[in-house]
Amino acid sequence: MHHSLSLLLVIIGLQVSVQSTGRRSEYRSVLTVLNGMKWGSWGYLDLCPNETYAAGFSLKVDEPSYGFWDDNKGLTGIRLHCISLSNVLKGSFEDYTSVQSEAGSWGRWTDIKWCPCGFLTAFQLRVESSQLFGDDTAANNIMFRCTQEYLYGDGTLWGKWGDWSQMCRGTGICGIKTRIEEPQGSGDDTALNDVRMFCCD
């Protein structure tokens, strides 16, 4: 009886420990922009671990090509890199966790860009509108506002910058959900079309 009770307490303790260091299940607010394109569908929401927030990001980018029949995709994925407030205060970016939603299969990931101080708090998206019979690329780059400065992504140059999202209510961005168009076979591929960021206290 005592052995079973001890085993149960150990299991409960392990569950509490895993839960306390696991991924968040809640957020405070959602940041959106108005210039995202509508092709594809929304992927899953991925949130930073408890007590961490996004202080850096990297992009998956399809390298531009300029042949007449080339099918450019522009921006195909976004990763957020989450760290704790204590690491931000120490200026340490070694102990981080990466989160991302759906991403296209094309392109390569860029190097991480870190906020010099604080966390990501707002974003702006560079989007190419519909080209009708031309080559559509949809989302091409992203810029983030840190607590005090701005971080510009290493995306492509097609399209125009839209308006900034709202600012985070809470400490900073803690999650991401992307809208991705699936491969179109012989059709025109665009990959990433839109993104939503999630803020936590």
TrEMBL record:
SUPFAM superfamilies xrefs: Vitelline membrane outer protein-I (VMO-I)
GO cellular component terms attached to this protein's record: extracellular space
Pfam families membership: VOMI (PF03762)
InterPro entries tied to this protein: VOMI (IPR005515), VOMI_sf (IPR036706)
Residues spanning the signal sequence: 1-20
Keywords attached to this entry: Signal
Domain of life: Eukaryota
Protein name: Vitelline membrane outer layer 1-like protein
Record organism: Cyprinus carpio carpio
